[in-house]
C-alpha cells in the first residue's frame, strides 16, 4: 500500500477519534495552545505520576492535521517519563523542520511519522506542531 495513502487514513482516523479528545479530571497541568494563522486552539491536560505522564488528553477545535497530530502525540507519549517525552517532541519538531532525517531516529516517532510530508506544506507546519509545542510548555511548568 502507498505510504501516503496509509498516512492520510491514519490522520483521518485520529481526527475522527474521540479517544484522546476528552476532558481529563483533576489534571496536574493544563496548557492552552493557539495557532493564529488558521485558528486552531487546543487545551492539553496532563496528569503525572511522579515523573511519568500517566494521562494526557486534549480539547479544542482545529483542522484535521492539528487534531490528529494531538491525538497521535498522546498515543506516543502516554506512559513516558518527562525527559523521554521532551526528547520525542524535539525529534518530531526536528523532523518537521527537516533538521532530523535519520530514519532510525525517526522510527521512534511511530505513527507521528505520518506528518513527515507536512514539511512540504509550509502553511500546515504550525498545525502539525501545535500540540507538541503546547506539551513542551506544559512539561516545563
Written description of the protein model:
The structure is a single chain. This protein is of the alpha+beta class. The protein has a single domain, classed as Sufe protein. Chain: A (Alpha-Beta Complex). 48% of the residues lie in helices and 19% in strands. The protein has five helices and three strands. Helix 1 crosses helix 2 and helix 3 runs antiparallel to helix 5. The longest helix has 19 residues. It is globular, with a radius of gyration of 14 Å.
Summary?
With 141 residues, the chain is an alpha+beta fold. Helices cover 48% and strands 19% of the residues.
List keywords for this structure.
141 residues; alpha+beta; Sufe protein. Chain: A; 3 strands; 19% strand; NIF_FeS_clus_asmbl_NifU_N; iron-sulfur cluster binding
Shape: globular
CATH topology: Sufe protein. Chain: A
Structural class assignment: alpha+beta
**CATH architectural designation:** Alpha-Beta Complex
The DSSP helix count reads 5
Following the backbone from N to C, one meets helices and strands in this order, namely HEEEHHHH
Contiguous uncertain segments of 5+ residues: none
The description of the largest β-sheet is: 3 strands, antiparallel
Work out the count of structural domains. Answer: 1
Helix content: 40-55%
Distance between the termini: 42 Å
How are the strands of the largest sheet arranged? 1-2-3
Quickly name the level 1 CATH class.
Alpha Beta
Amino acid at each position: 500500500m502507498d505510504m501516503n495513502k496509509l498516512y492520510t487514513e491514519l490522520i483521518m482516523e485520529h481526527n475522527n477519534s474521540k479517544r484522546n479528545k476528552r476532558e481529563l479530571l483533576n489534571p496536574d497541568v493544563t496548557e492552552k495552545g493557539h495557532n493564529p494563522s488558521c485558528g486552531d486552539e487546543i487545551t492539553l491536560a496532563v496528569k503525572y505520576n511522579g515523573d511519568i505522564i500517566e494521562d494526557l488528553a486534549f480539547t479544542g477545535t482545529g483542522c484535521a492535521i492539528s487534531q490528529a497530530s494531538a491525538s497521535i502525540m498522546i498515543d506516543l507519549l502516554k506512559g513516558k517519563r518527562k525527559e523521554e517525552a521532551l526528547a520525542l517532541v524535539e525529534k518530531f519538531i526536528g523532523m518537521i523542520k527537516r533538521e532530523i532525517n535519520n530514519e532510525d531516529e525517526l522510527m521512534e516517532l511511530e505513527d507521528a511519522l505520518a506528518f513527515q510530508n507536512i514539511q512540504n506544506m509550509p502553511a500546515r507546519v504550525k498545525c502539525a506542531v501545535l500540540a507538541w509545542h503546547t506539551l513542551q510548555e506544559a512539561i516545563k511548568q
